[in-house]
Amino acid sequence: MATPILIVALAELYSERAGQVNIGLDGIMAFGALVGFLTSYITGNPYLGVLAGGIAGLLINMVYAFCTITLGAEQIVYGMAINIFAPALASFIYKIYFGISSTLAQATLMKVMPIPILSKIPILGPVLFNHTIIVYLAYLLVPFTYVFFTKTKPGLNYRAVGEYPKAAESLGINVVRQKYIACMICGALAGMGGAYLTTCYISTYSDGVVSGRGFIALSAVIFGRWMPGGVLMAALLFALIIYYEKTNMEECL
């Protein structure tokens, strides 16, 4: 449950570090979920589904990038526009392809890949080392992001664009290009986070499959104080709360 929140929260972290506050994560996730599902359904390959979801998210976020960077429009307004436009487009494409039916199409789910030896550790093994490859990549992305932003020159230049754009420009950094790159990274990761839901978590797509996870990821970035480690802890905390809420609802039913 933490994985899609973590991936999308890191997507927002990359965006905000370049000065782009993108609240359209829910919409990007929804479109990535639909494209990921369709690709997995047609090809039978969930790995291609995740890749396609990332590409779809990138393309959708380019609308936001063009309007906010090139045209200088308000970021919050166009983020909300993405939240309205992308899920509606995803729903329209799904109904065009499958028609209106009471039954949901099912696709192939990504198989779990237990890590040898580590997955046999009592208690911790099944919790940490018995997942799909996307889960492992999501957690590896946390230390990579930390090292990139704090220990590398490109990462420091990246942060400078968001914190001091005029100073960064005076040093010869192309601010506009860096902001576009940030939006591309954000869109791709958010799309992959959405595709995770329909290729690794559940085997179908339906309206509302994202269930507000984009807004939860946005909260995780703030709660984690814009640091990768903090974002990870926040994602795990929110996922734990969602799990217990879901469990209580099932018990009530």
Output the structural class. mainly alpha
Major beta sheet, strand line-up: 1-2
Overall form:
globular
How many distinct beta strands? Answer: 2
Q: What is the mean predicted local confidence, pLDDT?
A: 92
Task: Provide the β-strand percentage band.
Answer: under 5%
**How many helices?**
11
Q: What order do the helices and strands follow?
A: HHHHEHEHHHHHH
Main sheet attributes: strand count, strand direction, barrel closure:
2 strands, antiparallel
Question: How do you describe this structure in short?
Answer:
This protein has 253 residues and is an all-alpha fold.
Explain the layout of strands and helices.
Layout lengths: L1 H15 L8 H19 L2 H25 L4 H24 L14 E2 L9 H5 L1 E2 L1 H19 L1 H11 L1 H6 L4 H27 L11 H11 L4 H25 L1
Antiparallel strand pairs: 1-2
Helix pairs in contact: 1-6, 1-9, 1-10, 1-11, 2-3, 2-4, 2-9, 2-10, 3-4, 3-9, 6-7, 10-11
